[in-house]
Amino acid sequence: MSYKLICIDMDGTLLDDKKEVSEKNLNALREAIKKGVKIAVCTGRLFASARYYAELIGVKAPVIASNGAYIREKDRNDVIYELSIGVDRCKELQNILNKYKFNVYYNKYDSVITKNGFFQGNTYAIMNKNLSDNNKIKLVTVEDIDKIIEEEGDDILKCICISDDYENLVKAKDEILKTGYYEVVSSNRDNIEIMIKGVSKGRAVKVLADFYNILQSEVICIGDNENDFSMIEFAGLGVAMGNATDHVKKIANYITDTNNEDGVAKVIEKFVL
Fold first, then answer.
1. What are the angstrom distances between the C-alpha of 108 and each of 111, 113, 138, 160?
2. How confident is the model over 222-269, as pLDDT tens digits?
3. Is there a catalytic annotation at residue 210?
4. In sequence order, what are the beta bridge partners of 79?
5. How far apart are CA 82 and CA 30, in angstroms?
6. Are 86 and 141 in contact, with CB atoms under 8 Å apart?
7. Residues 206, 223: contact at Cβ < 8 Å?
8. pTM
């Protein structure tokens, strides 16, 4: 099979545990690009964060961000696809979350808004230290989250809740799903990520493949966690990392090595190069 599009998750997949892209992964990606294969970063992170890594590897295809709610070329302002939560649904969501003591963050394509502040070691805060002023991710702390939702809810793509109260995270996830208006996934045990109904990485990959007239059978998707499930299931070749959850491994066509053992490079070498 000749593969034409490779969609790659970032955390736990393309990035090692130090949040770096290995030289072996970089070389494999660049060789695939030389062969005419399109590479797309497909992440739960917001676009401004994903774009940094897209630039690092020289990705030509758009970035799929916020778990599939936003697709855009990294070097252009043209948005290929966008599905925001919206003011009314953000209000409903916040009413549910008010019952729980989570750290709650609302993501736009270039910024994160919260009333909880940003804890030490926040991924985006760390990234900002190495980014130019024009590329920094906007980290906004507000006192009145309801006012911000009223003003900016139509631009909010994702809500993420972080807590070490795993039992209540599960409880909140069930409550939110029962409304029928949202998609809820996790990228780690300590979080839930909430988008509007219909948003998923799998749907976004389909949108991107259709945009380029690429068949489903010509797509490789690589990931490690629950929010990657839909795209791995969609792909012609769905690949789970060696460090992936058992749930993801069960539906994958192929299991590669871990994110610390150049698992992405090994997939590309085996099936593309």
1. 5, 8, 9, 11
2. 999 999 999 999 999 999 999 999 999 999 999 999 999 999 999 999
3. no
4. 72
5. 28
6. no
7. no
8. 0.89
> What pLDDT digit, counting tens, does each position of 58-88 carry?
777 789 999 999 999 877 778 999 999 999 9
Residue boundaries of the structural domains of the chain: 5-82+200-271, 87-196
Tokens of 31: 């060789």
Helices (H), the chain: 23-34, 47-57, 87-97, 123-128, 145-152, 166-178, 201-211, 229-234, 246-251, 263-271
Among the options 9, 11, 228, 262, which is catalytic?
9
> Amino acid letter at 140?
V
Length of the chain: 273
* CATH code matching the domain that covers 87-196, chosen among 3.30.300.30, 3.40.50.720, 3.30.1240.10, 3.40.1190.10: 3.30.1240.10
